[in-house]
Amino acid sequence: MILSLSLPRIGSQMQRGTIHKLIAKAGDELRPGTPLLELRVDVGSDRMQDCPPLIFFRIVATERAYLRKFDVMLGAVYDVGSVLGIATSTRDESAEGTPVRAIRTTSFAIQIDPLTR
């Protein structure tokens, strides 16, 4: 089964997210709990602020799959729902075709040292 990896909406104010760190790579076997990427979200982007509230999230797989394509760039900004990659349910399955559904993921907020951004 072909699965899409899409940028999830994290909170009602999120419109887009910036790739902060790539953890997984194409070819990786994903298991529940496998971290995929870290995302920086500006939750105040809809209004002007001197110090916009930035929140960092880690996106984690919650099901078994094989990451076949992962075409994201570090620092790139993606809209909610953008397809970031393709996974399959078995290793030898073709990744060509239309995804049946999105791969199941979860996200949680993480703390980033401001000096390492």
Number of strands: 10
Note the run of SSEs as H and E. Answer: EEEEEEEEEE
Low-confidence stretches: none
The major beta sheet can be summarized as: 5 strands, mixed
Placed side by side, the strands forming the largest sheet appear as 3-6-8-1-9
CATH architect. name: Beta Barrel
Give the full name of the CATH homologous superfamily.
RNA polymerase II/Efflux pump adaptor protein, barrel-sandwich hybrid domain
Label the overall shape: elongated
- Could you report the average pLDDT, rounded to the nearest whole number? 90
> Total domains, how many?
1
Q: Which percent bin holds the helix content?
A: under 10%
Rg of Cα set: 15 Å
Concise summary:
This protein has about 120 residues and is mostly beta strands.
Describe the structure.
The protein has one domain: OB fold (Dihydrolipoamide Acetyltransferase, E2P) (Beta Barrel), CATH 2.40.50. The strands form two sheets. It has a five-stranded mixed beta sheet, with no helix packed on it. It has a five-stranded antiparallel beta sheet with strand order 7-2-4-5-10, with no helix packed on it. It is 0% helix and 45% strand. The protein contains no helices and ten strands. The chain has 117 residues and is mainly β. It starts with a strand and ends in a 7-residue tail after the last strand. It has strands at 2-6, 16-22, 29-30, 35-42, 54-61, 65-70, 77-79, 83-88, 101-102, 105-110.
